[in-house]
Design a protein that fits this description.
The complex is a heterodimer. By secondary structure, chain A is α/β, with parallel strands linked by helices. Chain A has helices at about 25-30, 55-60, 75-80, 100-105, 115-135, 135-145, 150, 175-185, 210-215, 235-240, 255-265, 285-290, 305-320, and strands at about 20, 40-45, 65-70, 90, 110, 165-170, 190, 205, 215-220, 245-250, 270-275, 295. In chain A, helix 5 runs antiparallel to helix 13. The longest helix of chain A is centred in the middle third of the chain and has 21 residues, at about 115-135. The chains are: A alpha/beta, B alpha/beta. Chain B: This is Hydroxyphenylpyruvate reductase.
């Protein structure tokens, strides 16, 4: 039976420095732990304990006011209940689908995420995947690497990016970063969002089906919620058309993956660039056989530069909280 | 015009081939078993040559065709045409500028993203089943990287415009400074390479620009630098580039062109920081049709004594 929280065995706990609970380490913490050293807080590392999580929280997390989480450690009503002093949830990710936002709102628990700092990398990955699919970059690279160029001659032609109508699903910080980039390639940008954005100079579509009818490609940049789960289904994909391309850098479950695989296999859409899947790291085996699909292992935001900026933002939010200053990136209900 | 002989240097586009066959007497040079006999037999009927980036009209061919009036290239690059000889003999030369500018620029950016974000390698990682065993590594951020462009012509400017949307600071080297642009000019390629993260070759291939990316430039670009070539293979000293990549003295490369296409140095196949493409810069359905129409339009204009659409000589 333990008498002290795990990391305090070798040092005297500083009573004044408040704890930030971490149930499982987010990739950010694993890769850049030294950036999380602060005089304003210390980490309470639940995963280092042999106690089951519930028992650990009951024993040690009663006075914890802040938690650092990620997809691997969701903030459910059950967890919230075990943290009676919780006032702040900080996620080291852009996505917030692993946090019960309604429950947090109800209890006045603030939430911050890292959408802003990851937007550039996510947008770069989305545009990279779109160009790759249209111009067959990964497929042609395979062709050259397999020594097929001398024997086979010219590679099949791709499709021009300029002039394409690209529908952005979700015009938040990532979606608007994608839009800005695509404009420079001569694409016509369209979008669907819960509500029209007054600052956006692009045509607004109130539902994703109508967006698909008018688009040559869809780039999914929205959050995963009950409303957006399987929002992109067969009907939307058929509307997009046989030459249509889907790029997803958001969450796998926004697309009905089974229906997407069928559409790709039967040529009902033209191709896809996918960074996320419904059941990662599992990828439907049919996709592994297709040349018109580019696959990425959920790395859209995984650059050292992006991660270091995210670390800075997470630490800055936590320090601001403990100093009773305004949070840097609170989640605003859009 | 069916009696006008047109010599097509190599296969390049089925639509263009069909149309040339319809409108002229088309000779497919690559199907001729004995080229010198063929030329002797047909030299008085061939009045046009259609070439591309692989094969054009060198001095030898021009001399063998005394009735040659026009060389229409299915490319914007003119390095396979002996321009001086054409000028000397009053032979007109046309190419396909503007219609392919966007596609080539798009591909340059696509290569930058593919190399820095390791898109091809991570696609391979997923397809091989490795993702189930562990996560892929971090890759390098593209936004904000300094892009240095060799040659600020149509294609160079189009690359600059796109890179700016990713907040990339732009610098360049060209024969003369372009004072009308706001980009930073470097008087030498070595200085340009030393001051950028991604170096792109976007100039035309001439005697002066052959091996413009040499050992010194590669050294200046450095271990974190990335080279993108959407120009011509001979712009780069290929053996030097290969050893720099193998020895990790340079950070990576995205190459659409090679010194001896379709041969690609074997050593490059094993590297994970290299993307290799089979000369597809203008390779879209839309652009190749536009290029073909430009070739046909130029030939028609010439034989109808109208002004050429895109003359070079």
């Amino acid at each position: 039976m333990e008498s002290q929280p795990p990391q305090e065995r070798s040092e005297q706990p500083t009573k004044e420095v408040p704890h930030v609970l971490v149930m499982k380490p987010p990739p950010l913490l694993t890769l850049f732990e030294d950036k999380f050293i602060s005089t304003k807080f210390q980490l309470l590392k639940a995963w280092e304990s042999t106690l089951p999580l519930d028992q650990f929280l009951t024993a040690y997390a009663g006075s914890v006011r802040a938690v650092l989480c990620s997809g691997a450690s969701p903030i459910t009503p059950h967890i919230i209940q075990l943290l009676p002093s919780l006032q702040l949830v900080v996620t080291a990710s852009a996505g917030t689908n692993h946090i019960d936002l309604n429950e947090c709102r109800r209890l006045g628990i603030a939430v911050t995420n890292a959408a802003g700092v990851f937007s550039d990398d996510a947008a770069d990955a989305a545009v990279g995947l779109l160009i790759d699919v249209l111009r067959k970059i990964s497929a042609a690279h395979r062709f050259v690497r397999h020594r097929l160029w001398p024997a086979t001659g010219d590679y099949p032609l791709g499709s021009k990016l300029g002039g394409k109508r690209v529908g952005i699903v979700g015009l938040g910080s990532i979606g608007s970063a994608v839009a800005k980039r695509l404009e420079a390639f001569g694409c016509t940008v369209l979008y669907n969002s819960r509500k029209p954005k007054p600052w956006a100079p692009y045509p607004f579509y109130s539902n994703v089906h109508e967006l698909a009818v008018d688009s040559d490609a869809l780039v999914v940049c929205c959050g995963l919620t009950a409303e957006t789960r399987h929002m992109i289904n067969r009907q939307v994909m058929v509307a997009l058309g046989k030459q249509g391309i889907i790029v997803n850098v958001a969450r796998g479950a926004i697309i009905d993956e089974k229906q997407m695989v069928e559409c790709l296999v039967h040529g009902e859409i033209g191709g896809a660039g996918l960074d996320v899947f419904e059941n990662e790291p599992n990828v439907p085996k049919e996709l592994l056989e297709l040349d018109n699909v580019v696959l990425s292992p959920h790395r859209a935001v995984f650059t050292p530069e992006g991660f270091m900026a995210a670390c800075d933002q997470v630490v800055a939010n936590l320090e601001a909280f403990f100093e009773h200053k305004p949070l840097l990136s609170p989640l605003i209900d859009e | 015009m069916e009696s006008i002989g047109v010599l097509m240097a190599c296969p390049m586009n089925p639509y263009l081939e069909q149309e040339l066959h319809k409108r002229f007497t088309l000779h497919r040079f690559w199907k001729v078993p004995d080229k010198s006999t063929f030329l002797t037999t047909h030299c008085n009927s061939i009045r046009a040559v259609v070439g591309n980036a692989s094969a054009g009209a060198d001095a030898q061919l021009i001399e063998a065709l005394p009735k040659l009036e026009i060389v229409a290239s299915f490319s914007v690059g003119l390095d396979k045409i002996d321009l001086a000889k054409c000028k000397e003999k009053g032979i007109r030369v046309t190419n396909t500028p503007d219609v392919l500018t966007e596609d080539v620029a798009d591909l340059a950016i696509g290569l930058m993203l593919a190399v820095l974000r390791k898109l091809c390698e991570s696609d391979r990682y997923v397809r091989s089943g490795k993702w189930k065993k562990g996560n892929y590594m971090l890759t390098t951020k593209f936004t904000g990287k300094r892009v240095g462009i060799i040659g600020l012509g149509r294609i160079g400017m189009a690359i600059a415009k796109r890179a700016e949307a990713f907040s990339c600071p732009i610098s360049y080297h060209s024969r003369t400074e372009k004072t009308e642009t706001k980009y930073k000019y470097y008087p030498s390629v070595v200085e340009l390479a030393a001051n950028c993260d991604i170096l792109v070759v976007a100039c035309s291939l001439t005697e002066e620009t052959r091996h413009i990316v040499n050992r010194k430039v590669i050294d200046a670009l450095g271990a974190k630098g990335v080279l993108i070539n959407i120009g011509r293979g001979p712009h780069v000293d290929e053996p030097e580039l290969v050893s720099a990549l193998v020895e990790r003295r340079i950070g990576g490369a995205g190459l659409d062109v090679f010194e001896h296409e379709p041969e690609v140095p074997e050593e490059l196949f094993g590297l994970d920081n290299v993307v290799l493409l089979p000369h597809v810069g203008s390779g879209t359905v839309e652009t190749r049709k536009a290029m073909a129409d430009l070739v046909l339009g130029n030939l028609e204009a010439h034989f109808l004594n109208k002004p050429l659409l895109t003359p070079v000589v």
